[in-house]
Specification:
mainly beta; globular; 4 domains; 4-stranded antiparallel beta sheet; Neuraminidase; about 35% strand; 10 helices
Length: about 675
């Protein structure tokens, strides 16, 4: 009798930390105004420099073919098409410095404009195609500053006059401000348009070419200009003036309508001090009247992609885009763990174009309804697509190697939170999952919002043998309505903590979750929550807190967003209500912490300063509790998603090693428990 072959076993392995070096990420993209070609950049790790390189590519939709336009090991950004679709401008950086490059698409002839000093970014073309406007970090000398005196050694001093004197990912900016510059392509001359101690961004030339709109931020969060408002300036001789003189809140990402009468933007009109919990939504400004109205009166979500993952350095993409001559204004909207692509007209009629269990992270429209966009999902870190005539088509295959590896798909579900509120959650089962066995759990608590994006780190945990759970409890930055996001103001560690623990209760009721072997981790406000959790329960066998908030009192003055963020989160300032600020600080509960805690932080983190981690470590070490502090040198708050490849890999190994030490990785038969 012939023996039948057994069912083949899938022996593909899951993901490991070192797989980071294999990824290729779609970064920026821009469709030509003609709608016939798409320029885009692809970023990948670069082992020799322990950094990243990005190249510029061009996809021709007429022939459905793509080619690479850059050589060497550069970093390219700020891709912009000329109005006639004949040229691409972009910012180029490599070992030789910074430059702006302008490529004639048809003959591949390229003009190179070297830049002494800072790069020119956020490029936009003039209507005539002879100039580019952009943004540069520019040193500003204050009238009270002394120059170097001959014969006397130069002092080494920083003079601080603004709240935002340092910025995470940039460093100390006490004497530098982002200014608007114009590059003349015929003469190669650079001229500075703004000259004040204010940060300017998002310059957009009007369709006539007579005016430039841009955003100004005064670095003082308690003033109307402190979190960004739109200014316009006649070119070449005008002075900047506020687009909306009576606007109280924030306005960002201006884009001109076809006749230059209107400017669309994302923002809100709530008075200062402005904080991150107020949603930025679509608005339309009448340029001559200096007034604005909200578009889409019933929209109760936030413009941008607020999903947290480890694939993109940027979290938001708060932009509005309006192709010259088109009727539609395009934007992303965060909805229940997804970032969806929308468009809206000047009357407020809107429609959702792209949705699903996915994250649309970049987009670019052309007149007539064609939209290029980048989209990721839990099985793919992102591909280039084109939407046209109501249908989408994928144009790239950037990570085919992933098909040779096994992934564990997340399962979405909802559980009952505080007062019966429904909480959105996900669970990833360990690879090789078998019924009748219990598995250790890693609970990831959020900063911002968990989403339908690809997450390398979660797959590494699943491959190591862990179930991975994550929740979007109340306080989630976006996606579940303004009221849900504001629900934790003044109650940090209150109902949001209760809601997390209700989710844990639901998990351990499942036969395959080992309630005795659970770990918890999170970064930023997720680090705050990790610290809070271990100060309020001993249910977790191990914890890893990352780039965390420990003390709301010292956070106020040491974070680059401390004044605005502390007030927005705690609803008070330390000197007004010290007791409330302390009660919402995890370090206040240090005597209750018994869980072995690994603290991961970066020494150039200006969002959550290193002193926050040091406070937690010192207090636990003084009390003789199991604690370890790992400091990544030369990294900032974005270590997990944009840090040096070697450090990102090491970070994952440190977290895995901690959980393996205290939780193990093996499954236990339910008959043994």
């Amino acid at each position: 009798m012939t023996e039948l072959p057994s069912t083949p076993v899938d022996r593909r392995r899951g993901l490991i930390p070192e797989d980071l070096l294999n990824f290729r990420w779609l970064d920026e993209l821009a469709i030509s105004p003609s709608g016939k070609q798409i320029a885009y950049s692809i970023r990948r790790p670069h082992v020799p420099s322990n950094g990243y390189v990005s190249h510029l590519y061009l996809h021709d939709l007429r022939t459905d073919s793509a080619r690479r336009l850059t050589d060497g090991d550069p970093q390219v950004s700020s891709i912009a098409w000329s109005r006639d679709s004949s040229r691409i401008a972009y910012s180029h950086s490599d070992g030789d410095g910074h430059s702006v490059r302008v490529l004639a698409v048809d003959d591949d002839f390229e003009d190179i404009y070297p830049l002494a000093g800072a790069a020119l970014s956020e490029l936009d073309w003039s209507a005539a195609g002879d100039k580019l406007v952009g943004v540069r970090w520019t040193a500003m000398r204050h009238a009270d500053d002394r120059g170097q005196v001959p014969g006397i050694p130069a002092p080494t001093v920083k003079v601080v006059r603004r709240l935002r004197y340092k910025q995470d990912g940039v460093g100390w900016v006490h004497d530098k401000f982002k200014q608007i510059w114009v590059l003349d392509l015929d003469s190669a001359d650079l001229s500075q348009i703004t000259h004040s101690e204010c940060d300017y961004s998002s310059p957009k030339w009007s369709n006539s070419g007579a005016r430039i709109a841009f955003v100004g931020m005064a670095r003082e969060q308690n003033t109307p200009l402190g979190y960004g408002q739109i200014l316009t300036c006649d070119f070449p001789a005008g002075q900047p003036s506020l687009l909306l003189p009576n606007w109280q809140g924030t306005a960002f990402s201006p884009v001109w309508g076809a006749d230059d009468r209107y400017i669309a933007f994302a923002g809100h009109n709530l008075p200062p001090p402005v904080n991150r919990r107020n949603f930025w939504q679509p608005h339309l400004a009448d340029v001559e009247a200096g007034t604005a109205v909200k578009l889409g009166a019933d929209i109760d979500e936030e413009v941008g992609n607020y999903g947290v993952a480890d694939q993109r350095a940027s979290l938001t993409n708060v932009t509005m885009k309006w192709a010259p001559g088109d009727d539609w204004i395009y934007f992303l909207l965060t909805e229940q763990g997804a970032a969806n692509l929308f468009r809206i007209d000047a009357d407020g009629n809107y429609e959702r174009l792209i949705s699903g269990d996915c994250t649309t992270f970049e987009y670019s429209p052309a007149v007539g309804g064609a939209v290029a966009y980048g989209q990721a999902d839990p099985s793919n870190p992102g591909e280039l697509y084109i939407w046209q005539d109501g249908a989408s088509r994928r144009l790239t295959d950037l990570n085919p190697w992933l098909r040779d590896h096994e992934l564990s798909p997340p399962e979405s579900y909802w559980y009952d939170g505080v007062d019966g509120a429904k909480v959105h959650a996900w669970l990833i089962k360990p690879l090789g999952f078998e019924e009748g066995k219990k598995y250790p759990l890693v609970l990831y608590v959020h900063c911002s919002m968990f989403s339908w994006d690809f997450n390398h780190e979660f797959q590494v945990y699943a491959n190591a043998g862990y179930a991975v759970a994550y929740f979007n409890q109340r306080g989630t930055t976006a996606g579940y309505g303004q009221a849900w996001t504001k629900a934790t103001e003044g109650d940090q560690g209150g109902a949001d903590y209760e809601e997390i623990m209700l989710g844990v209760d639901e998990l351990v009721s499942r036969s395959y979750i080992d309630g005795e072997r659970m770990g918890v981790t999170g970064g930023s406000c997720g680090g705050f929550m990790t610290n809070w959790v271990v100060g309020h329960t001993d249910r977790f066998a191990a914890a890893v807190t990352q780039r965390s908030i420990v003390n709301q009192i010292s956070f106020f003055g040491t974070s680059d967003i401390g004044p605005e963020c502390t007030g927005g989160e705690t609803r008070t300032d330390p000197w007004r209500d010290l007791e409330s600020s302390w009660a919402q600080s995890p370090v206040a509960y240090i005597d209750n912490v018994n869980t072995p805690l690994l603290i991961i932080h970066a020494d150039e983190d200006h969002r959550c300063a290193l002193e926050q981690a040091e406070q937690m470590f010192a207090a636990l070490r003084w009390r003789g509790k199991p604690v370890e502090l790992v400091i990544f040198e030369g990294e900032n708050h974005g270590l997990s998603r944009g840090g040096r490849p070697g450090n990102r890999i090491e970070r994952q190994h440190r977290i895995l090693g901690w959980f393996k030490k205290y939780l193990g990785t093996h499954a236990v038969s339910t008959r043994e428990t």
